[in-house]
Every structure is written in C-alpha cells, then in structure tokens.
Amino acid sequence: MMEGIALALFFCLCFAIISKKFNFPPIPLYMLAGLILGASGLGIVQTSEISDFLTSLGLIFLLFTMGLELKPSELIGRKGSFVSSGTIDLGINIMLGFFGSVLLGFPVEEAVVIACAFYISSSAMAVASLIENRKLAAPESETILWLMVFEDIILLFIIVFFSASGENPLETLGMAFMVIAAFFVLVYGFKSKISALLSRDDELPLLFTFTLVLTVAGISDIVGIPETLTAIALGTALSVTSPELLEKHAMPFRDIFLIIFFVFFGISVDLSNGIPIVPVLGLSILAILSKLISGILIGKKIHGSYWSGIDIWSETTSRGEFSLAIAGYYGSPLISGTVAVMVLVTSIIGGLTGKYSKHLKKYFKKIIAGKKNPA
Length: 375
Known about the structure:
Order of helices and strands: HHHHHHHHHHHHHHHHHH
Number of domains: 1
Number of strands: 0
Family: Belongs to the monovalent cation:proton antiporter 2 (CPA2) transporter (TC 2.A.37) family.
GO molecular function: antiporter activity
Domain Cation/H+ exchanger transmembrane: 10-353
Radius of gyration: 21 Å
CATH class: Mainly Alpha
Keywords: Membrane, Transmembrane, Transmembrane helix, Transport
Shape: globular
CATH architecture: Up-down Bundle
Low-confidence stretches: none
Distance between the termini: 66 Å
Subcellular location: Membrane
C-alpha cells in the first residue's frame, strides 16, 4: 500500500508544479490525479486503512486550524455586515442546492447532504486566490474572508445536525457539550503556560500541536462524538492563546495530509458506477450560478455596488475541502461521486474567475451597456 501512497503523492507533486507554473489552484488537480489513478481511471491505486487514517488526519488538522479563526470577540465586532452577508449566502445557496437536487431526481435525504456540500465554498482556494492574484487590499476581500468564517460556523452546525440525527441525538449532543466545555475550561486554566510553550524555538511546539490534535481525535472515538466537531471546538478554545503560532505549527501537517485527503477522495470515487453525469453537470452549473446570485446581492448590500458582487462571486465559486468532507462523512457513494464532479467543475471555473475577475467585470459592463444603447 505504501507504493500506492508514494505514486499518488508523486502525481500530486507533478500537478503541483504545473499549478504553480500557471498560477492555478492545485486542489482540483489533486482530485484529478486521484480520479486517474483510482476506480474511475487506471485502477492502479486503492484506498486502505493507512490511506483512510492519513486522509482523516488531513481533515482533522484542517478543521482545527479553521477553529483557530473563530475568535468570538472579532465576530461580535462585525456582527451587522457579517450576519447579513452570511445569511444571504446561506439562504440562496442552500435553497438552490436542495431544490436543484430534488428536481434533478435525488431523494430528499440525499438532497439535504448535497445542499450542504453545494453551499460551502472552499476557504483554501478563496484565500490562496486572493493572495496569488494580489487582491487582499481590495475592499471586497474582507467581505470574502468573513464569508468564509460565516460558512465555517455554519459547517459546525451542519456537523452537529448530522451527528445528532443518529440513534441517541440527545446523548450525542450532551456528550459533545461536556467535552467542548472541558476544552474551554482547560485552555483558560493553562492559557499562559500554553502560550509560553508555543513561543519556544525548539521542537516542543511542533510536537505539542501534533500530539494535541491526535489526542483529541482519540478522545472523540472513546466518547463517541465526531472528531470533526471536537477538532473545531479545540481550535476555537485555543484561539485565546497564540493562534498564529498554533496555525504555523499545524500548517505543515495540514497541508501534506490534505493533499492525501484530496487525492484519495478522487481514488475512492467510481464515476463509472451509475453516476448520472448529465444531472450532476447541471448541478455543477447551478452551483456556479447560485454563487453569482448571492455574490451580486452581497455586493449591493455591503458595498453598494452590484459590480463588487462579481469580485465576491469570482472568489467564492470554488467548492472544495469541506464539500468533500460532508460527502465523505455523511453521503452515499452516489453523493460522493456527485459532489466530486461538482467540486472538480466549480474549482476549475473558480480558479479562472478568480484570476480573470477584472476582465469578467469589463465583459459584463460591456454587455449591459450594449443593451442600454442598442444600435
């Protein structure tokens, strides 16, 4: 199995070099590598217990670093525009994702999972695009970043919703509440010592971060609550210490394990096994249009300009890591294949819209000007 992991990573390395050369997001290329190597393509690499463990680490570290960004004090300070823009994004995309899935023939239960995956944009691709395309100084960039934070919070509720829909929802929620409360109590009790440890310049901060995240995953298995939920909660609790240092130490683990997560998700998907390609492509197109609608409305609401909405849309079109996580944890093989195609299509289009957003705005303005002044 190690040969398969090595081959998958070699393909990812090649695709990463290509993505850097052409300034294009690597995530869809990692998935494409998995589709080529796995059940949908050559069939030369399969998943195993080792690959499943490594992919789960990628997701846990991603959610942990996501939790570090959820600082309660900053959210309270931004509550007006934060809530209004986030609510527009949530309402439009969840609604269109659900009804679009039902109209395309998916059962209601599966449509709920698809709608959640449909809604969540890729934070990784949005942030990377803003940096690579030098847009961080633009006024819309702050709105985009806070939209990603709002979606992270909604993701937490999505995890709770699906986790509590099992046989004993009250027991699951009660246990989760106690564990999360314990995290906050412990962090506040050892806040100064944790900050001092993270400030060291030896290997201890790195070892502490890695051990802490894995220990929490182990606790989740013992008490029977989702490790995704505890990873976010731990990150949020630790955001009162030294979140920048924690993210710095967690980032190397997150990045390498996430690559494994993307490529092996692609390996596990079998598009030849009854995936309705035409409806799924239709859903992918709807996903692009829904973010366009919500982006334009948010641009008008927050920045007073529909054109600002084009910039917001261009950076939020891509679905990625969280959509795949929802599909992988709570979806059937049909949903996994559906979401994989949607992520692949939207991330490719999103990479282009982020790169050429200025040209897109000029193009849309020219079209509207032409309609106002017909020959």
